[in-house]
Design brief:
The complex is a heterodimer of chains A (328) and B (249). Chain A has 328 residues and is α/β, with parallel strands linked by helices. Chain A contains 8 helices and 16 strands. Chain A has 2 domains: 182 residues, 3-Layer(aba) Sandwich (Rossmann fold); 122 residues, Rossmann fold (3-Layer(aba) Sandwich), CATH 3.40.50. Chain A has a 7-stranded parallel β-sheet, sandwiched between helices. In chain A, strands 13-12-14-15-16 form a 5-stranded parallel β-sheet. In chain A, helix 2 packs across helix 3 and helix 4 packs parallel to helix 8. The longest helix of chain A has 18 residues. The radius of gyration of chain A is 21 Å and the shape is globular. Chain B has a single domain, classed as 3-Layer(aba) Sandwich (Rossmann fold). In chain B, the strands form 2 sheets. In chain B, strands 9-8-7-10-6-1-4-5-11 form a 9-stranded mixed β-sheet, sandwiched between helices. A two-stranded antiparallel ribbon of chain B has the order 2-3. The chains are: A alpha/beta (328), B alpha/beta (249). Chains A and B meet through helix 2, helix 3, strand 5, strand 8 and strand 11 of A and helix 3, helix 4, strand 7, strand 8 and strand 9 of B. Bound molecules: flavin-adenine dinucleotide. Flavin-adenine dinucleotide (FAD) binds next to helix 5, helix 6, strand 15 and helix 8 of chain A.
C-alpha cells in the first residue's frame, strides 16, 4: 500500500498535525506492506524542512517549491497536489483535518473524482484494506466507512494520532511542475493572525475554555494566566454563549457551530456543558470542569471536577501549575 | 445579484442520537428535523446581501426527499424568493451530492452560490468546495463575513490561527460559518407569504455514492469522573491527579 501524506508548513516549520499524518501514514503503510510518502508545498527553501519528515516515517518527500506556493493558495495547492497524486499511483492520500486541510481536501476530491472522508479519528488495516472511523452528529456517533474508489482520500483529526519519531531518513525529491499562478482566480489579500504565539484552539494540546460563568470579558485575564502557566502548547477556547455576547472571537468557539477539538487536556471553566458544547470537546483526553453548580451537565463528562467559585479556584490553579512547572 | 443557497434538512442539534435497527443509520423515530444551523447562516447572508444591494433573487436549493419541502419553506419564510427541491438519495458521499447540485446550478449559473460550511448530520464539510471545483469556480470556505463589489466578492475566511481575506471573481461559491450571520426568525407574515412562494420539484441527476457506512456506533459513555472537592482547597489534589493519575501535566 502506497500512502501519500500532504503536509503543511508555516513559518518554516511543519506543524504537529502534519507530523501526525505522516506518522499515521507510515504506520498503516508498514502494516499493509508498503511505503509512505509526504508531499510538501511551499516557497523557495521549503525543501529544508523535507528531510526531517523522514523521522516520522516518510521514505520519500516530494517537494514543490515556488514563490506562488509560499502561503496556502486554494487554487494553486489543489492543482499541484492533484497532479502529484495522479502521477504517483497512490492507494491512499491523507491530509490533516486542519482548516487548511479541510479546505484543500474537497477540492482535491473533485479534481481526482474520488469521495472524501473528513476528520477521521481511527484508521487501521484489515485484510489489506483501510478501515476508517469518523464521527457524525458532532461526535454523538461514530461510523465505520467504506470507500469504493482509489485513492482513498481522508483528513485526520489533529491530536488523535500520535506523531511517532523513528529512525529513518527520507529521500527528498523535488518535483518540477509548470505553474501558471495568473490562471488561479482566487486572490489571497491578507492574513490576520489572532492570538500571536498562542496556538489555535483546534491545534493546541491543552485548552483552557471559558463560559458565561466568567461574567465579564475582562476576567479572561484569569484564563490567560492559567493558559500561560500550562505552557506554549496551551490555547484558549470559549463557549458559544460568550462568543455570541462578543466577549471572545468566534475562532475560539468550541462545539457544534464552532471547532471540534481533541486536546490531551481540556479545562471547562464556568461552562455548563450543553450538548452542543460537548459535541466539540468530548474526545479530549482528560477533561477538567470547574463549576459552582454540582448538577451542571459538564460534570457528567469531566474526568475531574471541582465544585466551586471559579474566581477562587482558577487563580489557585494557576499558582499550583506554575509551582509545578517551576519544579520541572 | 441572484444568489442560490444550498441547504440541508438534518436532525435538531439537541437530538439524542440512537442507532437504528439497520446498524448503519440513526433511529429516526421521534427525531425533530430542522435546517442545518450553518445553512441558516448562509440563508441569512444571502438575504442581507439582497437587502444591501436592493435587487436580485434568493433561491434555496436542496437535495432530499419530500420531507425537505418543510426545510425549504422555512427558508422561504425567512425571506428567500423561491425554492427548488431536487428529489434524490442523500448519502454520506459529498461528491455525489455536489454533482447533483452542480447539474442544477450549472444551468442557471448565478453569480453567487452560498452553502453552510458543514452539515450538522454527517459533518463532512466538503460539498461547497467540491461544487465549486466541479463548476470551475473559485471558492472560499468557513467565511464569517463578506462584501460584494464590482464583479467580485471579498471574503473573511476563518482559518486556524487567524483570518484570511480572499477576493474571488464572480461567479463564485462561498461557504458560511456563523460569524456575523445570526439568522433571523421567520415572522408570522413571512410564514404566511412562504405558502404562496414558488417551490419547484425536480428529479435530481444523482451520481452513485462511493462512500458508505458499514456500521454506526455510539461512543463509549465517558465515565463520569470524580468530583475532586469543593473550592480552592481542592486544587492541590486536582493538580496531583492530573500529574500522577492522568499524566497530563
Ligand atoms: C444550533 C445550536 C448550536 C450551538 N452551538 C454551540 C457551540 O458550538 N458551542 C457552544 O458552546 N454552545 C453552542 N450552543 C449553545 C449551547 O446550547 C449553550 O447555550 C452554551 O454552550 C452555553 O454556554 P455556557 O456554558 O458558557 O453558558 P451557561 O449555560 O449559561 O453556563 C454558565 C455556567 O457557569 C457556571 N457559573 C456561573 N458563575 C460561576 C462561578 N462564579 N464559578 C463557577 N461557575 C460558575 C454556571 O453554574 C453555569 O453552569 C448551540 C446552540 C444551538 C441551538
Amino acid at each position: 500500500m502506497k500512502i501519500l501524506a500532504v503536509v503543511e508548513q508555516r513559518d518554516g516549520e511543519v506543524p504537529g498535525a502534519s507530523r501526525e499524518v505522516v506518522s499515521a501514514a507510515a504506520s498503516l503503510a508498514e502494516e499493509a506492506g508498503g511505503e509512505a510518502h509526504a508531499l510538501l508545498l511551499g516557497g523557495p527553501g521549503v525543501s529544508d524542512q523535507a528531510a526531517a519528515l523522514g523521522a516520522f516515517g516518510a521514505s520519500q518527500v516530494r517537494v514543490v517549491a515556488h514563490d506562488a506556493l509560499a502561503d496556502y493558495h486554494p487554487d494553486g495547492y489543489s492543482k499541484v497536489a492533484s497532479q502529484v497524486v495522479k502521477d504517483g499511483a497512490y492507494d491512499a492520500v491523507f491530509l490533516p483535518a486542519t482548516s487548511q486541510g479541510k479546505d484543500l481536501a474537497p477540492r482535491l476530491a473533485a479534481l481526482l473524482d474520488v469521495p472524501l472522508a473528513q476528520d477521521i479519528t481511527r484508521a487501521s488495516v484489515v485484510d489489506g484494506a483501510l478501515e476508517l472511523i469518523r464521527p457524525v452528529y458532532a461526535g454523538k456517533a461514530f461510523t465505520q466507512i467504506h470507500v469504493e474508489a482509489s485513492p482513498v482520500l481522508a483528513t485526520l483529526r489533529p491530536n488523535v494520532f500520535p506523531a511517532q519519531e523513528r529512525d529513518g531518513t527520507a529521500q527528498v525529491e523535488s518535483v518540477d511542475l509548470d505553474l501558471d499562478p495568473d490562471a488561479w482566480p482566487t486572490r489571497v489579500v491578507s492574513f490576520e493572525a489572532t492570538g500571536g504565539d498562542v496556538p489555535d484552539v483546534a491545534e493546541a494540546s491543552v485548552v483552557v475554555s471559558g463560559g458565561r460563568g466568567m461574567k465579564d470579558p475582562e476576567n479572561w485575564k484569569l484564563l490567560d494566566d492559567l493558559r500561560a502557566a500550562l505552557g506554549s502548547d496551551a490555547g484558549l477556547g470559549a463557549s458559544r454563549a460568550v462568543v455570541d455576547a462578543g466577549w471572545r472571537p468566534h475562532g475560539e468557539q468550541v462545539g457544534q457551530t464552532g471547532k471540534t477539538v481533541a486536546p490531551k487536556l481540556y479545562f471547562a471553566i464556568g461552562i455548563s456543558g450543553a450538548i452542543q458544547h460537548l459535541a466539540g470537546m468530548r474526545t479530549a483526553g482528560t477533561i477538567v470542569a470547574v463549576n459552582r453548580d454540582p448538577d451542571a451537565p459538564i460534570f457528567k463528562v469531566a474526568d475531574y471536577g471541582i465544585v466551586g467559585d471559579l474566581f477562587e479556584v482558577v487563580p489557585r490553579l494557576t499558582e499550583e501549575v506554575r509551582a509545578l512547572k517551576a519544579e520541572g | 445579484m441572484n444568489i442560490i443557497v444550498c441547504i440541508k434538512r438534518v436532525p435538531d442539534t439537541e437530538t439524542r442520537i440512537r442507532v437504528g435497527d439497520d446498524g448503519t443509520s440513526i433511529d429516526q423515530s421521534g427525531v425533530k428535523y430542522v435546517m442545518s444551523p450553518y445553512d441558516e447562516f448562509a440563508v441569512e447572508a444571502a438575504l442581507r446581501t439582497r437587502e444591501a444591494l436592493g435587487e436580485g433573487e434568493v433561491t434555496v436549493l436542496t437535495l432530499g426527499d419530500d420531507a425537505s419541502q418543510e426545510t425549504l419553506r422555512t427558508a422561504l419564510a425567512m425571506g428567500a424568493d423561491r425554492a427548488v427541491l431536487l428529489q434524490g438519495d442523500v448519502s454520506h458521499d459529498g461528491l455525489a451530492t455536489a454533482k447533483a447540485l452542480a447539474a442544477e446550478i450549472g444551468e442557471s449559473d448565478p453569480p453567487l452560490v452560498l452553502l453552510g460550511a458543514k452539515a450538522a448530520d454527517d459533518d463532512q464539510q466538503q460539498v461547497g468546495p467540491m461544487l465549486a471545483t466541479l463548476l470551475g469556480r473559485p471558492c472560499a470556505t468557513a467565511v464569517s463575513n463578506f462584501e460584494t463589489k464590482e464583479g467580485a466578492v471579498v471574503c473573511q475566511s476563518e482559518v486556524d490561527g487567524g483570518t484570511q481575506v480572499l477576493e474571488l471573481p464572480l461567479p463564485a461559491v462561498v461557504t458560511i460559518t456563523k460569524g456575523e450571520f445570526e439568522p433571523r426568525y421567520a415572522s408570522l407574515k413571512g410564514i404566511m407569504a412562504a405558502k404562496r412562494k414558488p417551490l419547484e420539484t425536480k428529479d435530481a441527476q444523482t451520481a452513485p455514492s462511493r462512500l458508505s457506512v458499514k456500521s454506526m456506533e455510539l461512543p463509549p459513555e465517558r465515565e463520569a469522573g470524580k468530583i475532586v472537592g469543593e473550592g480552592a482547597e481542592a486544587v492541590p489534589e486536582l493538580v496531583r491527579l492530573l500529574r500522577e493519575e492522568a499524566n497530563v501535566l
